[in-house]
């Protein structure tokens, strides 16, 4: 379970102080599928990064299964980011010099898995996203939708309990975007992975069981359609 208590994240730009998040309270249960929706600049990415341990709040507490994220030492925080959470980004963030297979193997190197196991696992993950026939392609030899599938495979490599996808369909047309949503939804449904989709698109958000709306760094909740 993910619990955010009074999370505030402040940025200082010269004399100006920006509250990217302003006393955000939020609970996401294991296996839930939530969409975090809001306009550009509302604080979505800041929230995603704080939940995923990529950024820390100026004040407030992030509890993961009851344990404070800020209490974790560097090693345990890395373990959290690498093993418990899988990230999917709008711009894919793949290594351009590496093949799809190598990109998916990277987090497994960090996790110190042996070479053989690594390859087996990466092939399994790429197959799960329908890319078994594109494993030796580099990102620039793949379409946008295929690149995003590689990044989902990479997120899956360490068997995460949580997937955080920040505008995963933002660089794709609506058909390809929906294919990506269908893959992510299946992971939530079939494997019970907690799915957090960040989006400004209500057609994406309404597919979640719960929509969390954010505006000017503050949250208002309402029920989703649950399609
Ligand atoms: N590194 C930063 N330095 C200063 N301001 C930032 C930084 N990152 C984000 N912000 C500001 O915080 C607010 C929220 O940003 P962000 O979380 O990226 O919003 P969203 O993802 O919803 O577009 C915006 O006003 C943005 O300009
Ligand atoms: Mg953003």
Tell me the β content.
Answer: 25-35%
CATH class: Alpha Beta
CATH architecture: 3-Layer(aba) Sandwich
Molecules bound to protein: adenosine-5'-diphosphate, magnesium ion
* Cα Rg: 17 Å
Structural class: alpha/beta
Shape: globular
Distance between the termini: 23 Å
Show unreliable segments.
none
Strand count: 10
Number of discrete domains? 1
Q: What is the name of the CATH topology? A: Rossmann fold
Helix-residue proportion:
25-40%
Written description of the protein model:
By secondary structure, this protein is an alpha/beta fold. It has one domain (2-223): Rossmann fold (3-Layer(aba) Sandwich). Helix content is 35%, strand content 29%. The protein is globular and about 50 Å long. The protein starts with a strand and ends with a strand. The relative contact order is 0.20. The model has no long low-confidence stretch (mean pLDDT 95). Magnesium ion binds next to helix 1.
List the helices and strands and how they pair.
Blueprint: E1 2-13, E2 16-28, E3 33-37, H1 44-51, E4 59-64, E5 67-68, H2 74-84, E6 85-89, H3 100-110, H4 115-128, H5 144-156, E7 162-166, H6 174-191, E8 194-199, H7 202-205, E9 210-215, E10 218-223
Parallel strand pairs: 3-8, 3-9, 6-7, 7-8
Antiparallel strand pairs: 1-2, 1-4, 4-5, 9-10
